[in-house]
């Protein structure tokens, strides 16, 4: 029940990406201490590529094929489950988040300790708090069920949850203002995403990039303006909670009047209509 890969490569990316040499990476997964791998690292650093390469190598091994690696020892896997990317299918009533959760539900219902689960970021399509909470709950579930899982995320808090996960991250080198993506997997978690740097590299207008950096430094940085803003918001919240509480006694003073839709008759008899209504099975109404 192990997946051991030495210097594994992505069979497609290494053939088509000539702008940089393909950097191989190892993998060790089992059903014991190494069953839950959480992979963090900056945007564009190689997380998705790595997850897919492990899935592909595992599938190739199952069909008896050669695998793109120096060495590999891969046990029998009953299914490979993946939850990758963000897409929707509006014609089938699926929003992005709905689709993400449907796929997650499938994984949680059907995976076994013989399966390999690949989750490439989970909980991005909703509020950050809900997303993080769902992601953590899913990790805990998979851990308890002893399901071999590789899980990439930008929610850095997940690297510190109190279950024995194995943290890995992709290395990056900062040279002055320049970022060098080393594409090499290393042990331990990271708390940096370099999202704005990558936005700049992707050609987002300089003024927007500059504004984003300013916002990080001020509004969204605990040390900066944010501390102030948060305190203010908390205070506002407290005030509103207090004012709500203060309203309670005066509300209590009012006499509550409960109206009954089907008030029984004084003599206790029930009309035919009332009987029919009470016998309706609400669940089977269309
Ligand atoms: N091991 C590697 N060697 C060489 N190039 C790589 C390697 N891994 C990834 N790349 C290149 O880097 C690009 C970005 O990688 P990838 O999409 O896997 O990053 P990511 O960490 O998932 O980013 P994001 O957080 O934005 O999803 C790929 O399109 C690929 O061309
Ligand atoms: Mg990715």
Q: What oligomeric arrangement do these chains adopt?
A: single chain
What is the number of domains?
Answer: 2
CATH superfamily of the largest domain: P-loop containing nucleotide triphosphate hydrolases
Number of helices: 8
Number of strands: 9
How much beta, percentage-wise? Answer: 15-25%
CATH class of the largest domain: Alpha Beta
Structural class: alpha/beta
Order of helices and strands: EHEEHEEHEHEEEHHHH
Stretches where pLDDT falls below 50 for ≥5 residues?
223-255
**Mean pLDDT across all amino acids:** 85
CATH topology of the largest domain: Rossmann fold
Largest sheet: 6 strands, mixed
Helix content: 25-40%
Domain DNA mismatch repair proteins mutS family: 115-131
Protein name: DNA mismatch repair proteins mutS family domain-containing protein
Keywords: ATP-binding, DNA-binding, Nucleotide-binding
GO molecular function, one term: mismatched DNA binding
